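User: Could you write out the 3D structure of this protein bound to NAP? I've included everything you need below.
Assistant: Certainly. Input first, then the structure.
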Amino acid sequence: MTMNRQITLAARPVGAIKESDFAYREAPMPAVNGGEVLVRNLYLSLDPAMRGWMTENRDSYIPPVELGEVMRGLTVGEVVESKNPAYAPGDKVTGRGGWQDYYVFNSQDLAMKIPDGVPIPVTAFVSVLGMTGLTAYFGLLDVAAPKPGETVVVSTAAGAVGSIVGQIAKIHGCRVVGIAGSAEKCRWVTEDLGFDACINYKTENVAEKLREYCPKKIDVYFDNVGGAILNDVLGCINVGARISICGAITQYNATELAPGPANYLSLLTKRSRMQGFIVLDYAPRFMEGVMQLSQWLLEGKLKYKVDVVTGLENAPKAIGKLFDGSNQGKLLIQIANG
Ligand SMILES: NC(=O)c1ccc[n+]([C@@H]2O[C@H](COP(=O)([O-])OP(=O)(O)OC[C@H]3O[C@@H](n4cnc5c(N)ncnc54)[C@H](OP(=O)(O)O)[C@@H]3O)[C@@H](O)[C@H]2O)c1
């Protein structure tokens, strides 16, 4: 009988995630009851948010993963058995499949069937057309509402979310300045994705470069990092600026809370606002986002990159790539062929 390989949460990380924070086990195949569907995971999305899900003492938007529980994660997979008339073996679905080979979902779970015959690789459904693309779409257009001619700055510019944010802002006629952690990443977003400029925050003075690349100041900032970069941006905003707080990866491994940005008073003098959001709140509008992103993708207006690491057993090590910046685009684990 086939076993279900699983990776569970073994310890709550202190500081950076360690491989020993996870454990490997083999479980029996899950039973499929009436109305349920058995899925074999093909690709698992690794996300910075997982660091928060591993932590207990935070007042967060979602409960933490319990110790000993299969690590939570979004996947794209293939239906292998169905007791639900809406799904048939061979269908491709996205859902909360977790760090394991197989899972079962029922009609209450958030799962999306990928329409047959779509000329788009399945990996797109856990990247540009998945939660990261939707995060870029709603976090930029709904929270920050950029207008043509405005200047948009985005951090983690070459990452899964940031690379899509910058391209959507270009589609909307904005000047786009990225911030990323290497010359290679900066080259990709300016030469291949059409950003107007990019700052390498590891080698350049961010505050100085923002003044140079944003001569009309910053109207929209899509913040994925928090910390010193957020502070530098606040020092360069326009009247009426909108800052969309998507993430703060500089803070996720911190063992103590960092002080707030010293330049926060710019929000007052520039009559501006910062607003956080969680993509899951947009679930009722996901189809709108997927349709628009798919159209841009098929028209060649949107490009994306996936960084695929093969083997479920390599997920505990691979997640570190998100925090040392060695991922090149959306980080995925390939669990099975298909
Ligand atoms: N609000 C929501 O609903 C929502 C949903 C999805 C994602 N997010 C957030 O979106 C952000 C991006 O996520 P993603 O999935 O697209 O990841 P990603 O950008 O593909 O990968 C993470 C990147 O973060 C950068 N980074 C890591 N440590 C850093 C540090 N100390 N300072 C500056 N940059 C650092 C690295 O790029 P460099 O090489 O450029 O440093 C790394 O490649 C995260 O903050 C995530 O939590 C929010």
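The chain has ten helices and 15 strands.
User: Perfect, thank you.
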